[in-house]
User: What shape does this take?
Amino acid sequence: MKDLQVIDWHKLYRERQAVADQFGKIWSLPVDRRYHKVLATVGRRGVDLLEVGAGDRSLRQKMQGYWGEYNYKSCDIDSTFEHDFTNIDEVEDSYDIVCAFEMIEHLSLDSAWLMVKKMYDHVKPGGKVVLTTPNVYYPPAFLRDATHVTPFCYDELGGLLRLAGFRVVSVHRLYHDSLIKKFLRRILLYPVFRAIGIDYAKQIIVVADKPA
Assistant: This one.
């Protein structure tokens, strides 16, 4: 990506605050088990979907189990697997859904901003963008990976999407664990977590749409 642009910090702060006001604090966000279960609710048979940072392209088959046949395209700079596009600048056409899972935190803030704007350009009016990122209220999710560059709080990520022109529809925490760990973290220890300002959910997922 070229010609990185500096974000208007005042506008980003304003949009971030709007997301925080709309959805409340991190502990108010609903909890879902898996990102693909959230994604399944925004798509259907026959949709056009672009996955950015697609890795092994396993999402294609996974979502077929929910929707049946649909049109899948992938974009990734890693040449280990064969992708339709190797750079966001190469992407063609518009899509009902553009998604990226555990990708945006690997970018600088300026690069993330440019990426989100490119996504906006390739989402059909009325279409959706779906992003996940480590939950900064669960520090190990971000800090354990040396390739992570920018930590995005849920309101920061939502604010970035709003700044690009999207409307944030929902924000969820993602958490899946054994029954014993769920009981310990979600019930027994949860008051302690809240008191010290941390959370048990390892990821967040933001769904936004492009106004028709």
Q: What stands out?
A: The chain has a mean pLDDT of 92. The longest helix spans residues 9-23. The chain has one domain: 9-209. The two ends are 27 Å apart (CA to CA).
